[in-house]
Amino acid sequence: MANQLTEKRKRPLSPLQALTAGEPVPKFDMPSPATPKKTVLVNSMIAPTRTSVEIHSNLKYVNPHKICNWKYKDRSPVDRGDIEALSKSLKENGQAQPCIVRPLVDNEKYDYELVIGERRHLAATLAGIDLLVIIENLSDTEAAIKQIIENQNRKDLSEYSIGMSYAKLIENNVITAKDLEERLSQTKLQINRLLSFSKVPKEIWDAIEDPSRVSARTATELRALSNKGSEYIDAIITLAKKIKTGKIGGTNLPKEVEQLIKGDSETTSSAIEIKSNNGRHLFTWRRDSNNQISISFPKDIRDIMNKTKLEESIKKEIEIQLNNTASIHMDTFT
After folding, report:
1. Which of 199, 230, 250 represents a domain boundary (last residue)?
2. Residue 109's domain spans which residues?
3. Phi, psi of 290, rounded to the nearest 5 degrees
4. What's the DSSP call for residue 183?
5. Is residue 218 assigned to a domain?
């Protein structure tokens, strides 16, 4: 009896048991085609450190460097969060939720395209471990629908990322606004608000810096106001910091912008247009209630302006004036 127990303990681990225990995967003969394949359920304790180990027909571990992002991915860089912390968690605790990929054909660099799971993909790449994925043959429309369904259960994705993703899908005829209304059970107004993010001029988002902190309601107002012309865009850029921090939002944004333009608001005490010798509007000096000075440029100037050269010119001029000021102070004491 004791010998039988000893022999039982020495039986080699199955591949799944080896994965679960973190042991090397034993070599084994693949079943013949006539043998039906048994599907094995995967739990969160499987260590994600094996290379392309097949658990069942469409679930496997893959080198993350062989996976590229789908061109219609729904997460912008501002929504990636703490990838280092997630990377550490994957390495220590394993991957609880597989990513979804689709196979690529005739691609020398990548084998798969990532549909769902960008943060996990980045974290696995950083950790130097393989990524657990489900492989599905999906059309662009099918992949888009999967993303949309996934979005409904996610709290870490901003309205900005969602709106920009939806706009790109619609622009490329992958899905329609009507499809979004039906899939999300949302009204046309709600969908249009999300789509507003893509219709706000880039220079406004650059000034706000973190569009993930802007609501769809505020984006709707930004779009409507910016459509009124460069003067309104300049005013919005002046208010960018307050929009970013939430001090100004969808409810009071129109009023603040109108007052800034009219010059009768407490938020501004002066606005001076600087023009060329032939009368062309070059830029505007503005001073707010905190005596902070800002410069805004008309759209036609922004479109042709070389920002790098402008920054260098401003930097050089400030340094000259600082040196001149220092020289004056030195002369006073000599």
Report:
1. 199
2. 40-138
3. -95, 10
4. H
5. no
